[in-house]
Amino acid sequence: TDAPGGGVLIRDIAAGSPALQAGLREGDVITGVNRRPVANERELQAALKDQSSFVLSVRRGNALLVLPVR
């Protein structure tokens, strides 16, 4: 879901998924992929196309995290 202020809000994470294994949580907001900003779900999908591993920039509350996903 597009997040207010930009980024993509994580509403649900599948059990055993690479996202869960990387440390994403419900309520996180993905703000970038491989250090490039993403403003909405469409931009996120385009940035992830053909990527088998990548780094997500994530806003969790007041913290900014960098999470590698393989």
Structure description:
- With 70 residues, the protein is α+β, with helices and mostly antiparallel strands.
- Helix content is 19%, strand content 33%.
- Strands 1, 2, 3, 4 and 5 form a five-stranded antiparallel sheet that branches.
- Strand 2 (29-33) and strand 3 (36-37) form a beta hairpin.
- The radius of gyration is 11 Å and the shape is globular.
Brief digest:
By secondary structure, the protein is of the alpha+beta class.
Sheet of most strands: 5 strands, antiparallel
Number of strands: 5
Number of DSSP helices? Answer: 2
Radius of gyration: 11 Å
Helix content: 10-25%
Regions with little confidence, pLDDT below 50 for 5+ residues = none
Shape: globular
Question: Kindly, what is the distance between the CA atoms of the first and last residues, rounded to a whole number of angstroms?
Answer: 22 Å
**Strand portion, in percent?**
25-35%
Order of helices and strands: EHEEHEE
Compute the average pLDDT.
Answer: 93
Q: Structural class per helix/strand content?
A: alpha+beta
Task: Please describe the topology of this protein.
Layout: E1 8-9, H1 18-22, E2 29-33, E3 36-37, H2 41-48, E4 54-60, E5 63-69
Antiparallel strand pairs: 1-2, 2-3, 2-4, 4-5
Task: Tag the structure with descriptive keywords.
single chain, 70 residues, alpha+beta, 5-stranded antiparallel sheet, 2 helices, 5 strands, 19% helix
